[in-house]
Design a protein that fits this description.
By secondary structure, this protein is mainly α. Helices cover 79% and strands 0% of the residues.
């Protein structure tokens, strides 16, 4: 039921750096491995509303309604620009032994979830992506859609965790160099701003 074509296509989609990947990598560098797992988990959870919208047919409504799409799109654009501004302004040193406190974990959860849920491109993507891999003439299309969705989310979480752990491996180098810290901070801010601009130009 889960074809090789679906697994390969999903892997390519997940590996392409987007807001979730950039956020997970930046979290792994700045706050450590444990925090990157938080980020990966919640970024993956942020996909769930888009999958539910696709299953329930809400994505079709959004695709047909320019107003609904634009409202969600510009909310996402505004939030990405806010994240870019906050990242650019945050000149606090990276802490090598930082473990996310309850307050920090809550902030990670909120930011990661908002980054994904405010992206209408995900809903449209799943509307076009998942139905292609449902077997024609199947008696259980709903079950297949759920299975495909669960598989995609599992792959997303695993890949995001790997990204976060790889970022953590380079963390000591970042900690020892304020210059590298400054370069990375500006780089992540620019990446979030670029993704916001890209979303703003989406029709």
């Amino acid at each position: 039921m889960i074809s090789a074509e679906f697994l390969i296509t999903s892997l390519i989609v997940v590996l392409i750096p987007g807001t979730g990947v950039i956020y997970t990598v930046s979290t792994g560098l700045i706050q450590g491995r444990k925090a990157s797992v938080f980020a990966a988990l919640v970024c993956t959870a942020g996909i769930l509303p888009h999958l539910v919208a696709t299953v329930l047919g809400l994505a079709t409504i959004m695709h047909a309604s320019a107003l609904a799409f634009q409202i969600l799109k510009y909310a996402g654009v505004a939030y990405l620009f806010y994240v870019a501004y906050a990242t650019w302004r945050d000149k606090a040193a990276f802490a090598i032994d930082a473990n996310p406190s309850a307050k920090t974990a809550l902030a990670l959860v909120a930011k990661a979830f908002l980054i994904n849920i405010l992206n209408p491109k995900l809903t449209i993507f799943f509307l076009a992506f998942l139905p292609q891999f449902i077997q024609p003439g199947t008696e259980e299309p709903f079950f297949q859609l759920l299975l495909l969705s669960a598989t995609f989310m599992t792959m997303t979480f695993i890949i995001f965790v790997i990204y976060g752990f790889l970022a953590h491996l380079f963390r000591k180098v970042v900690i020892d160099s304020p210059r590298v810290q400054n370069w990375l901070r500006r780089g992540f801010a620019s990446a979030f701003a670029t993704l916001g601009a890209e979303l703003a130009l989406t029709d």
